[in-house]
Design goal:
By secondary structure, this protein is mainly alpha-helical. It has seven helices and three strands.
């Protein structure tokens, strides 16, 4: 699929779903690299993205991470599926039932936050009450024990009778 996407569409995907500042530069580099030879391995794509993203010295995450995240979210249509899942999950709950969602990046958390707000403000009466106004995040001790938890954001709602 990546082999046929045009540069502007690829830049849009990387910018929207990866929140990558250098999306245009990365998309241009990917298009240029695949015109020379097909990108058949993830290591090839990662190398192209790292060169295009630039940056010197230590970085908290690999420069290719946001691009791979963007492509995964786009290909799997993850954000649309998440919104539909939350609606279906709340529909399956009985009164007093709770839905807890852990999001691992800001795009997911934004969808969860807006879905919870929408369901709590539904007319003519709310479907849920929000148990967490702000996301619950891991403390320093948990992050030290489990570094992957650093980006986790937990939100919870309870179904109204």
């Amino acid at each position: 699929m990546l082999q046929t996407v045009e540069e502007s569409a690829l830049a849009d995907v990387i910018f929207r779903f990866g929140e990558e500042r250098h999306a245009r530069r990365i998309a241009r580099a990917i298009v240029r690299a695949r015109s020379e030879q097909p990108l058949t391995r993830t290591a090839q794509l990662a190398a192209v993205v790292r060169r295009a993203a630039g940056g010197r010295g230590w970085q908290r995450i690999d420069p290719a991470t946001r691009t791979f995240q963007a492509l995964r979210i786009w290909v799997n249509d993850e954000l649309e599926g998440l919104d539909a899942f939350i609606d279906a999950a709340v529909g399956a709950l009985t009164a007093g039932g709770r839905l807890v969602v852990i999001a691992f990046h800001s795009l997911e958390d934004r969808v969860v936050k807006h879905a919870c707000r929408r369901l709590a403000a539904a007319e003519p009466r709310p479907r849920v009450t929000r148990l967490t106004r702000k996301p619950i995040v891991p403390d320093e001790d948990e992050i030290r024990r489990n570094p992957r938890s650093r980006s986790a954001r937990l939100r919870a709602v309870e179904k109204v009778a």
